[in-house]
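Hi V.,

You were right to ask for the full record rather than a summary. Here it is.
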Amino acid sequence: MPDDPVARFGLAGVYLEAGQAESAIIEYEETIRLKPDYSAAHRGLGRALERAGRREEAQAAYRKGLEVAARRGDLQTKKEIEVFLRRLDTAGSCGHTMTKEQFRVECLRLSPGRPPWRLRGVMGTGVTVRRV
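Predicted structure:
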């Protein structure tokens, strides 16, 4: 593999989409080694670590990505990382766990008559919710 950070970044994204988080982590780390100020690579590393269930490492990667994005003026990447980090921080602070079915019942209880919810598990962070 050439020492091209853009090629490595693209390969990492393909691995992540294919569900191969550990391979994605390796490629994102290599991308960052080649181009430390590539804020999108820091964001990608955080996502891959999150999917691999490595929550604390994902938080660290996101925080480093925030520093890089702020320094470079990458406002969109900075906003995305802030959202991912806030969601990860919130998910880890709830203090209890429930099954998807329990969560679905609670969502219906809190918002009766609203459209159904689609639940999607996120390794290491619990459950995310999306209205369909």
